[in-house]
Every structure is written in structure tokens, then in C-alpha cells.
Specification:
Arc Repressor Mutant, subunit A; 6 helices; mainly alpha; ribonucleoprotein complex binding; elongated; single chain
Length: 112
């Protein structure tokens, strides 16, 4: 039952955020009533409290992009420069490490 309630509250919060309406427990409950979704009365309040002070649209657009951790202002250019230097340092480390023998060199494989 809780999975249904969680999904219903998430979808309600997304609808509210898409319409640029503040996400509150009462508004989530209103959407759920209009959709004839019956859940425990504490779920809308939990989701509203969890999303308090969070810009849901920014959260959705920045998931998995790594942009959320970048500093604002002129720092993104500096961060990009530092990111360009990081792969070169990793390549140098890889060259210094001695190569390990693989199982193929020993004469046995995974399905032998």
C-alpha cells in the first residue's frame, strides 16, 4: 500500500511544481481527492515537509548531470578547467601501475 501512496504523492508534487504552485500537504491532498486516490492522511504532509525549500524543477533537471554540485557564478569555467586537468592526471597514474596477469595467461577461463 505504501508504494501506491508514495507514487501518488510524488506525482501530485510534480503536478504542483509543473504548474508553479507551492507544494503543500493540503494541495497534494486536493489533487489526490480529485484523482480518487485513497491514502493514509499523513503522506501528503510528509512529502510537503520533505520538499519544503526545494525547487523541484531544478532538482529534476539536475539529476545525474553533476551540475548540482558546481559552484555558481564565474566558477564553472574554473571547474571545467580543473576537470580537464583531472583526466590527464588519471592517465599518468594508470601508466605507472604494473599490469596484472589475467586468467587467460594462466590457461584457465571462466567456463573451463
Amino acid at each position: 500500500m505504501s508504494t501506491k501512496a508514495e507514487l501518488a504523492c510524488v506525482y501530485s508534487a510534480l503536478i504542483l511544481a509543473d504548474d508553479d504552485v507551492a507544494v503543500t500537504g493540503e494541495k497534494i491532498q486536493t489533487i489526490l481527492k480529485a484523482a480518487s486516490v485513497d491514502i493514509e492522511p499523513y503522506w501528503p504532509g510528509l512529502f510537503a515537509k520533505a520538499l519544503e525549500g526545494i525547487n523541484v524543477k531544478d532538482l529534476i533537471t539536475k539529476i545525474g548531470s553533476g551540475v548540482g554540485s558546481a559552484p555558481a557564478g564565474g566558477a564553472p569555467a574554473a571547474a571545467a578547467g580543473a576537470a580537464a586537468e583531472a583526466p590527464a592526471a588519471k592517465e599518468e597514474k594508470k601508466k605507472e601501475e604494473p599490469e596484472e596477469e589475467s586468467d587467460d595467461d594462466m590457461g584457465f577461463g571462466l567456463f573451463d
